[in-house]
Input
Amino acid sequence: MQEQIREISNYLANFFIEKGLDEDAAHFLNMLINIAVVFVLWYMIHYLTKTLLLKAFKRFTNKTKTTFDDFLVKSNFPRYVSNVLPLLLLILTIPVVFQDYPKLLKVFETLVDIYIIFLLVLIARSLLRTTTNYMKRHERYRDKPLESYTQILMIIFWSIGIIFTFSELTGKSVVGFLISLGAASAIILFIFKDTILGFIASIQVSVNDIVRIGDWITFSKYGADGFVTEITLATVRVQNWDNTYTTIPTYNLIADSFHNWRGMQESPGRRIKRSLFIKQNSIRYIDEKDIEKFQEFNLISSYIKERQLEINDYNTKLGINKKFLINGRHQTNLGVFRKYALSFLQSHPQINQEMTIMVRHLAPTTQGIPLEIYCFSKDKLWEFYEGITADIFDHLIAAIPFFDLQLFESPSGDDIIKALKSFKEE
Output
């Protein structure tokens, strides 16, 4: 076919020469006409193939059930493919159009080669985006950093494309260009330092399963506290609880420490760990009247009876002097309240009874003795979790006066004024 085109082109040149034009002028005019004809043909073929291909793809996607072809259209795959036929026209016609001008022929052949390289990269990018978007629709891939994999592959494709482009422009072989590139590797490493670190971090994040899309993470250094919505080669995007977004460099997930709450999300319960601060001077031994009162409390009635019988047997066997409560063994109001709080948690319907439930003392502080409540709620959703926690502490705070205990609270201005007034009155 190329020979037929060449014959037509030569016919025009010979025709101009026969009409009396100078040979150089005839060849130059012939080249201009050929350029105009090729441009018109290229434009018509490009327009027709793009229009027909887009319509064909749309009809095809409307008839099929799969969504893969829909993503092909969204990623401009038909537009890129529609350039193939016009490109073939250029490959066939350019050697004929510039046959009398070798230097121009070399320039345009180089441009066509570069065009082919970039078109192949664009088609590959379109297929990668289509595959990524299609895989995101499947449940098993939603928490995977697919964007990172796509970006890594795109960097590889673009790097190959740029290497071949420079090889075309400089006239050097690809191997020779790579050798020259190796000499400048230190500069390249410095320029693309962040990209390289992000590339390494992205691989480590994926292989070690450090972070997934949908994980709740807390990264105080960057003020991030929310769900991971996107993982790319360079950054991880987090949607915070206030609906703002925080962008974290991917490498920092490897270099710095952060909290990933996935373990809590996957566990059967969410931890409740808070303390009540008991005033130390409100703690005392309980007497018979207290025992009678506490036996009326349903949650600890049987415990009080059994515990008191055990203590009485112990004191009787050792002949303890009962004149002073400090002698022998006796229950305290704090100990009874601790048992009450534990029984309350063990009977609470929203507490997971198969996980750790504990009420314990922590080391005394200047604010009193911390009585820590440690358990796990069945519901892990934030709003329900906070409601369960508030319900538990509402009850325990209201129950404390029944055990003749007091909570520590820093004195307010009104407390100081009342104390001064009472002091003056005395």
